[in-house]
Amino acid sequence: MDLQQYQSAKLVLLGDMGAGKSSLVLRYVKGTYFDDLAATVGAAFLTKVIHELGIKFEIWDTAGQERYHSLAPMYYRGAKAAIIVYDITSPESFARAKNWVRELQRQGNPDMIMALAGNKADLEEHRAVSPDEAQAYAAENGIYFVETSAKTAANVSELFMDLARKIPKVEATPKPPQAGIALDSQPAAAPRSSCCG
Amino acid sequence: METGGDEHSGPETDELGFLLPHLTEQQQADRQRSHNAAGALGREEWTRARIKRRLPRPRVLKKLLRKGGVPADLRPWVWFEISGASSLKASRPPAYYSDLVAASNEGCACARQIELDLPRTFVNHPWLMAPEGQAVLRTVLLAFSLHDPKLGYCQGLNYVAALFLLASGQDSERAFWLLAAMVGRVVAANTYGSNLVGCHSEMRTLGVLMEKKMPRLHKHFQDLGCDVSIIATDWFLCLFATSLPPEVAARVWDVLLYEGSKILFRTSLALLKTYEALLITMDNSGELMHALKHSTGQLWAADRLLSTAFKGIGGLPRAQLDRIRRKQHAQVAMMLREREAKRMAADRQQQQEQQGKHQEEQPGKKQRGAARKPARLANGTDRQG
């Protein structure tokens, strides 16, 4: 397939500082783990082509500190998928992950595919968030959950591949859709109407 | 395999102790020319200043700082004077810093966040990657978080504090006062505060200036849906310490510390102008940001950058700049207030939904939908109830 015909999909990583967002992305894109990764200020951008699915991921890796939250809409706007990362050794990072899920449910693209990733699964002896609790939370919110380790590579490519498979296919058109910008013609699905039980 | 090896021909470092990457011939020439300019210009004035321990007159000083910069060995002293760090220190009791350090040993609210960033601040600097350097950086950042408890610690300050440390002979107290002056006197108010509100305003102001000065590039950004903030966040928070080669950033700080935050706009506009032809060929915002980051990271021609900043982008009258800033600041404050109000309203609604769920056994009580609703059925066949 011609690279031009690949479907671009914007993917954003959100989560507490030090949860391992950059490490996850680099493990996936470059296939290695860096012990000495610089702290992200602003955001980093990487791409990854998945040939078998005809998808080109455009990955935005964001800064994690709470006060940087105010910059996040710029990165998740128009995103097809989001990975919300927490650190299984940090209950605070899990609480922040929940805040991110809430914010994306409220503000994000309503068709956005979300995944919750409990990273640093190799640090089992320091675990502070149980997988059952995270799984239950994810199920309740209809999002995909997996525990990962950027260090050992456990579940990392699986996570990205699962997201890629869930992204709805766009009909192949002679001209590829413009990268990076999602023009949402759908009316915003604000959760204002309540449905009957 | 054995590590270590030849200590005499170890990797080459720059004047701040950073490992130098492999430079092309052109980059080496750019670097050398910038260094020569710094050495040649004002040698006499700097020598006189050094002997008398008194800075040159303001008009001469301004010119020296813009044209050649401060000789590296004079930076600890010159930066301390021109930034206002010296007068800031004089305005506090002599033991102010050591008291803060003592207090920070009792524990700090931001200690965890600072700890996370220590081992990932300038990973290309051997001293900062060693426990010794990290201990000194920790001391400076913890003391600063107590000096300005409302700000505490903001990511980005780690790089700013580290560069101050490296440029002032690893003297932690000097770096502390320089950091306090940079945050409190040089950059815009609340740049690092809650929600980064000052940073947002500055970035939007840059957008307005870009529209005025580089309308074609601005239009291109708009066509791509590329917010200027995407490329400028680290410019305004790390003050180019992570965007330019560190010694080039230090060269920008020579002017920034004396002339103030306006220099951040001049440098930003100069960078955009330098790479305008490249940026205009980019067809999405991610590639654009990536290309710009890559290019600025290899900009060794400090002399050319500063010359563009002062001669290549036209006037930047203070009154006009402040007018734009005030307007942008008001808009940012409103945007953040509205977002916060929306968030609180949504949280309230969710609480009510949860209460509703708890009362669902009550007959006649309507249950609200779950957080994620199933897709609506087609053709409106779902009409019951």
Automatic annotation (TrEMBL), chain A:
<dbReference type="InterPro" id="IPR005225">
    <property type="entry name" value="Small_GTP-bd"/>
</dbReference>
<dbReference type="Pfam" id="PF00071">
    <property type="entry name" value="Ras"/>
</dbReference>
<dbReference type="InterPro" id="IPR001806">
    <property type="entry name" value="Small_GTPase"/>
</dbReference>
<protein>
    <submittedName>
        <fullName>Small rab-related GTPase</fullName>
    </submittedName>
</protein>
<feature type="region of interest" description="Disordered">
    <location>
        <begin position="174"/>
        <end position="197"/>
    </location>
</feature>
<keyword id="KW-0547">Nucleotide-binding</keyword>
<dbReference type="InterPro" id="IPR027417">
    <property type="entry name" value="P-loop_NTPase"/>
</dbReference>
Automatic annotation (TrEMBL), chain B:
<dbReference type="InterPro" id="IPR035969">
    <property type="entry name" value="Rab-GAP_TBC_sf"/>
</dbReference>
<feature type="region of interest" description="Disordered">
    <location>
        <begin position="1"/>
        <end position="41"/>
    </location>
</feature>
<feature type="compositionally biased region" description="Basic residues">
    <location>
        <begin position="365"/>
        <end position="375"/>
    </location>
</feature>
<feature type="compositionally biased region" description="Basic and acidic residues">
    <location>
        <begin position="1"/>
        <end position="11"/>
    </location>
</feature>
<feature type="domain" description="Rab-GAP TBC">
    <location>
        <begin position="69"/>
        <end position="260"/>
    </location>
</feature>
<feature type="region of interest" description="Disordered">
    <location>
        <begin position="341"/>
        <end position="385"/>
    </location>
</feature>
<dbReference type="Pfam" id="PF00566">
    <property type="entry name" value="RabGAP-TBC"/>
</dbReference>
<protein>
    <submittedName>
        <fullName>RabGAP/TBC protein</fullName>
    </submittedName>
</protein>
<dbReference type="InterPro" id="IPR050302">
    <property type="entry name" value="Rab_GAP_TBC_domain"/>
</dbReference>
<dbReference type="InterPro" id="IPR000195">
    <property type="entry name" value="Rab-GAP-TBC_dom"/>
</dbReference>
<feature type="compositionally biased region" description="Basic and acidic residues">
    <location>
        <begin position="355"/>
        <end position="364"/>
    </location>
</feature>
